[in-house]
Each structure stands twice: as structure tokens, then as C-alpha cells.
Write a structure and sequence with these properties.
The chain is mostly beta strands. It has two helices and nine strands; from the N terminus they run H-E-H-E-E-E-E-E-E-E-E. An eight-stranded antiparallel barrel has the order 2-3-4-5-6-7-8-9.
């Protein structure tokens, strides 16, 4: 099994070791099934909007699903993510085994440069050390059945002073891939499904 570790040049060696530790933990005894290469998902987003803070509010109000849009909030950052959604084979409510979401592992990118990481929690960590932890508030379907949903999440905890300081809401939009398909036959088995998305970080004016 090959595990790819994304090293963020702006992050400290302690952060790099943390990434390696998380990936080793997610690859415990069970196997990880890797699907399609990430290149299949490096496509133009569903709708194109500027990554500048000032121009995103109109796009939010005009084009985002009602359950996702937050037009009254200001945009702190818009970051692209490339990575994987990790699933675990577990018993469902009916007792049958099914793929259940475990955690995301993704690199956060701005203007072609790595600026942070996205991992279990879910949490987003910027290169300056600012971190937000959020919980699901609402969702809307992805563009196809193979695309994970668009989300709006409420921030429940944060630490550090930096780019993500004061963020109260996170939107996941423009999703590509990330849905686990097919049966799982071995409890505890892991499946890593490539995905990409854009994350919008919002705060009050």
C-alpha cells in the first residue's frame, strides 16, 4: 500500500510529523482501497468565481443553493482542496456492512501554493497556525451522484491568530468525486476516494 504525504513548505516540522502520524493512523491493519487518480478531478469548478474577498458575496447570493448561501457574512478566505475522503467498512443500522465516512485528508491551495491542510474533525489549518473546527449545519446535493454534497458548517472551536481567526461559517462547494461506491465485505477495511472542493471561510463584518 502506498501512502502519499503532502508536505506543506510553510508549516513547521512538528506539523509535518503530525500529518505523517495521521496518515499512519488512518492506514491501520485494514487495507485502503484507492480509486481513480486525482487527475480525473482536476477540472474547472461547476461555476467560476473570483477568489478575491470582495467579489465573492454576490456569487454566494446569486448562485449557491439556498441552504448553503450566507450572503450576510463577509468572506475571509477561499481555498481549493485536493485530497481524499476516507471511508471505513462498518455495520449499518440494518446490520449489513456499508462504507461510512471516516475523515478527509486534503491539501489546501491558494493561487497554486500550498497554504494548509484539512483533516478529521473536520478541521482546517492554515499555514499561519490558525485552525477552525466545524460541525454540519446543512447540505445540498453535488452535481452528480459521484460528487460529495455541498455543505454549510458552523464553527464550534478555533485557535491561533491568523487568516482563519474569527471565522464563524465554512462552505464546501464545487465538489468533485469523493463518494464511495460498491459493497464492503470486511469490517474495518478502509477506502480512500479522491476528491476536490472549494472551501469558503466566512466571518461577521
Amino acid at each position: 500500500m502506498k501512502v502519499h504525504v503532502a508536505i506543506f513548505p510553510e508549516l513547521s516540522s512538528d506539523h509535518e510529523e503530525m500529518v505523517r502520524h495521521e496518515l499512519r493512523a488512518s492506514s491501520r491493519p485494514s487495507r485502503i482501497i484507492h480509486e481513480k487518480t486525482m487527475s480525473a478531478y482536476r477540472k474547472v469548478p461547476l461555476f467560476v468565481f473570483a477568489l478575491s474577498v470582495g467579489s465573492l458575496t454576490a456569487a454566494n447570493a446569486a448562485q449557491l443553493p439556498q441552504d448553503i448561501a450566507m450572503p450576510a457574512l463577509a468572506t475571509a478566505a477561499v481555498l481549493h482542496a485536493e485530497g481524499a475522503q476516507v471511508y471505513e467498512c462498518r455495520a449499518a443500522s440494518d446490520g449489513n456492512l456499508a462504507w461510512r465516512a471516516r475523515e478527509p485528508i486534503a491539501t489546501l491551495i491558494f493561487e497554486g501554493s500550498t497554504v494548509g491542510r484539512h483533516y478529521a474533525g473536520p478541521r482546517w489549518e492554515y499555514a499561519d497556525g490558525s485552525v477552525v473546527h466545524a460541525k454540519l449545519a446543512s447540505s445540498a446535493p453535488g452535481a452528480t451522484q459521484d460528487d460529495i454534497p455541498w455543505l454549510r458548517l458552523d464553527v464550534v472551536d478555533q485557535r491561533g491568530d491568523g487568516k482563519l481567526s474569527g471565522v464563524t461559517q465554512v462552505q464546501r462547494i464545487n465538489t468533485r468525486g469523493g463518494v464511495a461506491r460498491g459493497p464492503c465485505d470486511e469490517a474495518g477495511a478502509l477506502r480512500s476516494v479522491p476528491y476536490s472542493a472549494d472551501y469558503v471561510f466566512l466571518r461577521k463584518d
